[in-house]
Design goal:
Blueprint (H helix, E strand, L loop, with lengths): L1 E6 L5 H6 L5 E5 L2 H4 L7 H15 L4 E4 L27 H6 L1 H17 L3 E5 L5 H18 L6 E5 L2 H5 L1 H4 L5 E4 L1 H9 L17 H16 L3 E4 L7 H10 L3 E4 L4 H9 L3 H11 L5 H9 L1
Helix pairs in contact: 3-5, 5-6, 11-12, 11-13
Length: 294
């Protein structure tokens, strides 16, 4: 089991490594867009990705492509307001609509990956096999243009349909990364930002765990691995159940790294597999948490 860090900037890489992180399981590239009042240039993005890749040495750096939309608004992009932005043009869907944003980002990532083989790429908000193939084709076109080798490529599992077609996705990807925050809200049909419903959007709900289990099973059949970069990975109960389900990487905020490692050291693999199997039979998230905490 690897415990990695979720970070936004290259300047946070050293702190994450000092805290015991074994790499970066999620670089949120949208913060390069959110923290300014204009689109970052290809050169600006390349500089940031290069600094992070260099800081990590040979440790993995998983760069998530632009994930704007939903609760992440960028006023200067002039995007149309949507009644239900979580079901609208967000993540890779926005990238398809705005190749002027997506292609320069891909070019910046590929330039860095040519010099740093630790760079991985993953696409957010993949809902269909067509989504993945379209995004991959755009990346491959950039790779060919720049003469870059294969870059390990994954998809976020945050839409239930992606988990349900994991068997079809697995032969074509190098890895999966589960975004439990969105996967939970889409599975339970509860807005995780809603003041009355947010408490119920618990990733330990057996319905969510079953989707993660389907993803892991499909990945294992095709020799691929699954990570989790959502909030459940940094939860002491979540870390144990996810590990028992067969997840191979947990990516958490830097302050959570030590706690997750401590929780994992206290249990055997066999014990966690049994725990996860029993968790899937529970009626709700509260019961799963009670089971794990004994």
């Amino acid at each position: 089991m690897e415990v990695a860090a979720n970070i936004n900037r290259a300047s946070a890489a050293a702190e994450a490594l000092e805290a015991g992180a074994e790499g970066v399981g999620l670089m949120r590239t949208e913060f390069l867009f959110l923290e300014r009042d204009s689109v970052p240039s290809e050169a600006d993005q390349e500089q940031e990705y290069r600094a992070m890749a260099a800081a990590l040495g040979d440790r993995p750096l998983i760069i998530r492509t632009l994930d704007i939309g939903g609760d992440k608004e960028v006023p200067y992009l002039g995007l149309a307001r949507e009644d239900n932005s979580f079901l609208g043009i967000r993540g890779v869907r926005l990238c398809f609509e705005r190749p002027d944003l997506f292609v320069p980002q891909l070019r910046a990532i590929v330039r860095v990956a040519k010099d740093h083989p630790n760079v991985h790429v993953m696409f957010p908000m993949i809902a269909t096999l067509e989504d993945f193939r379209r995004a991959r084709a755009m990346l491959d076109e950039v790779r060919t243009e720049l003469g870059a080798p294969h870059i390990p490529l994954g998809v976020m599992i945050e839409v239930p349909s992606a988990a349900l077609i994991a068997e079809q996705l697995a032969p074509e990807v190098d890895f999966f990364s589960v975004g439990t925050n969105d996967l939970t809200q889409y599975t339970l049909a509860m807005d995780r930002m809603h003041p009355q419903l947010a408490r119920q959007t618990d990733a330990m709900h057996p319905a969510v765990l079953r989707l993660i289990g389907l993803t892991v099973d499909a990945a294992q059949r095709h020799g691929k691995w699954v990570g989790v970069c959502g909030g459940a990975a940094g939860d002491d109960v979540g870390a144990l159940v996810l590990t028992g389900l067969g997840v191979k990487e947990l990516s958490v905020s830097t302050p959570q790294v030590a706690g997750v490692k401590a929780a994992l050291r206290g249990r055997s693999s066999a014990e966690l597999r049994d725990l996860a199997a029993r968790a899937l039979t529970q009626p709700d998230a509260a019961a799963v948490r009670a089971l794990v905490r004994g």
